[in-house]
């Protein structure tokens, strides 16, 4: 244990621990022991990530949250299956292959062969799984990679088929057209939540186009419509107005044409109206309003189409007329909206409602899967729609139909995978009827518990409340095929739920469910014998697969049906805020559709991890440090604690700062490690005396030492708090309290008890007894906190446990495999993670001790501030510390003036401490009250001003009386002084020798008597001498048990230090085991100097030397005898012992205490070599 380094290499220790856990199969053993005990099952679903990229901070954050919660569950009597999973299908994979093979359209895939294309996809989906395993394992996360699941596994895909079949049988599946966000880069529709993942500010052309009204050609009357998608104009089938808005017909004086548009939208074509300089009188120069009417008047009017591409189709008799709908607004454009039902959700809805198009009928859609115009629009044939704007706008101008051209900067959706602009496009798709079960989905959400709850009740609830039917199909290749077999016109459809059912109906048994296999399987028609049903073309959206994960990862219902159902819904899930429209949504929809239950009970939602500058982390910008580098520098525990102790675990954003991770190491782990190392050093000192340290909780509990009582109360309070908060999944409240506790343990308990734990407080057996009790307390606390923090910081707690366990009586039971057996036992068990988290001990909870210690710490903090204000060093004692507390409880006053008083004196180097009683407060402070506006504002309203004036104007005596009474009566209102009034103490004592500071909340004032005299100055100098001795001991690498003598040497004729030491002999005797620093002239010539240096002590420059303890001799002793004694060691003699020796044939009998002495201090005292000793 003494070999522990002063500073632990945390990353190195963690790397060794990872190897140890792997070699000893620690994770698997934890699971095995749990199953053996029959622990209650705790179900956890881990959302599958894509393994086509490396893990980033978002994954590390979510993984840390998941690992912390599941470790906590495992250490509180639960069996937790933790399986890794991989999302293998979908756009991310296909897009990468398309880039690799330069595939730009679907036909190229068919030419290549779906089998070859899918094989390419299969080859990359697990490319980074090893890197994931390495990073996740190094992070300390325990998850089973050997027993992982993949969404491309036949067992997983079969369960997805089963899920879909249940929806099909319940009438929740249909095929239809839907205008959807469409990625031309990936040639597939996207869900609404995918479309919202990647918005960018872009410049798009914005045009106003005219539509001549049929029958009003003579008057040259036109509708004018505004659009930011000119490429949709060839597909225009109608115009739409708002029936309730006011419209006008105007004469445009520049062109002589008449335009119809919204009355409030004249500013769209006359942009000068948007200027601050615009004056209504200018209007007559631009236009003249000839007629005004409601939009309803325009309904049914027909107009001349821009193009005749669809003017002669079967349905065209219904085209090119004015419709009305409330979605048209007057906040932009002209109040007249052009309708292209193939390319707009509202366009499709409105045109369907007014008979422009028919449900189930064809829709003019001259754009292919790659986003290029088809032969139907010859002017832009083969051109991508976004590029076609540059062709179409000049044609409109030539036709005389272009009224205005502008550029609009706006936020526009881009494909989250290909980073190409999305379009809205009508596509045939398979849908799940979410709207039909929406009310049940909303109700099931109410049964779940979220952290933070605001996400559940706000963002997620709103999304569910407005949920629309879900398009679950994709026109792609690498995915789970939709298991519908049908004839060409879909009048006969069969939905397959399993491999067995497909084999039964087709006569073909397959073991892979991907397209290259299932597309070859045909099923004989029952309606039309002799014909065959073929599988429909589409595959499932990968979100449908991840939403099916609870069932598919376990191959439900084909395997372990009863066991699975007992664990559903899951106890816990956790993912990022972006999954409110993703995985959380699909889980809830499918579980409601299948079982009318939520898929999970508890959910922690994390926020985004951003770069330090607040921007999104970007590989291209390199604006964040590599996670693996951060772990290698500071350790995984530090990264884990930094992330979990931040706003990001309550769905807020975190600006990642590498310095923050370093801060955890400096402020938490190093002090914690130092306390642990200090404990082990003192155990060694204890056992070096021939004693055996065996932990004894009973002895710890029996301690009467006030700091022992306090730290045990803090520890039990911490245990109680952690259990309460973790049961509520509030990690964000747990970590700050854990961090604060480590500070209390290291900065206060260990520091206040340093001498005591070293056996230096008191004398002999009393000192040993105090040290023993303190060490039992410290061991108990360290072990409890080590186990308690196991789920949060798994590495450092394991490191501590491996050392601490060796003191336990059960430690020998670990031999021969006992450490991996039940029941778990502290000491016997080979890992801290096999143990059960400690329950709190109610008998040791002591709120009064905790409160008194909090006040002590405040007194010490304010006392130090006062010293600093007056520039009085802590080494210089002060005569008096006075504290004035606002309404202190009796137990607080009793604590800090009784058992805790000596600690205040020691910490502030004061000779006395005094708490001012209430009846004397007016001599020291003025009590001021002020109303709490946040509490009283609504309650008092207009009376607030008068109440404030009254409360602020109270005298000290009146304020004291009000606090004592508890209420104030003002303006007919009763004010609660405890909750609705703030109180503050201001120091008012006269006298320049006082220096005072107050807590910011005004509850405490500490005043320091800064009077300096000979006694205080010499005491301060003596402390500086002792500090120098301690620095030399440290430089000489001495152990606590090593005894040294100290000597000082001042400039000739100066005796400031000697005078100071002479006044404080008892201080040194207590600190230096009876020795006192002496002038260098007293040192024996043979004394062996261990270390020496110069120090500033007061106004004197002093050389201090520490020497090994040596015998000192009487000045009158013959020189030959002196030489003999100089070779002997003091421990060889006892006080008063005679020593016989023969020198030059002469016999001598020398007596300790007369002829020689055990130390120079003993000689100086006996011979009065210095008068003051």
From TrEMBL:
Could you say which EC number(s) this protein's record lists? 6.1.1.5
* Record's keyword terms, sorted: Aminoacyl-tRNA synthetase, ATP-binding, Ligase, Nucleotide-binding, Protein biosynthesis
Signal sequence interval, chain numbering: none
Q: Which NCBIfam families match?
A: ileS
User: Which reactions is this enzyme annotated as catalysing?
Assistant: tRNA(Ile) + L-isoleucine + ATP = L-isoleucyl-tRNA(Ile) + AMP + diphosphate
Residue span, Aminoacyl-tRNA synthetase class Ia domain: 17-654
A matching Pfam family: DUF5915
Please, one GO biological process term? Answer: isoleucyl-tRNA aminoacylation
Task: Report the residue ranges that make up the Methionyl/Valyl/Leucyl/Isoleucyl-tRNA synthetase anticodon-binding domain in this protein.
Answer: 708-880
Q: Which domain of life is it from?
A: Eukaryota
Q: Which CDD domains match?
A: Anticodon_Ia_Ile_ABEc, IleRS_core
Q: Which InterPro entries does the protein's record reference?
A: aa-tRNA-synth_I_CS, aa-tRNA-synth_Ia, Anticodon_Ile_ABEc, Ile-tRNA-ligase, Ile-tRNA-ligase_type2, M/V/L/I-tRNA-synth_anticd-bd, Rossmann-like_a/b/a_fold, tRNAsynth_Ia_anticodon-bd
Name of the featured protein? isoleucine--tRNA ligase
A GO molecular function assigned to this protein is: aminoacyl-tRNA deacylase activity
- Report the family membership: Belongs to the class-I aminoacyl-tRNA synthetase family.
Gene3D superfamilies this protein is in? HUPs, Isoleucyl-tRNA Synthetase, Domain 1, Valyl/Leucyl/Isoleucyl-tRNA synthetase, editing domain
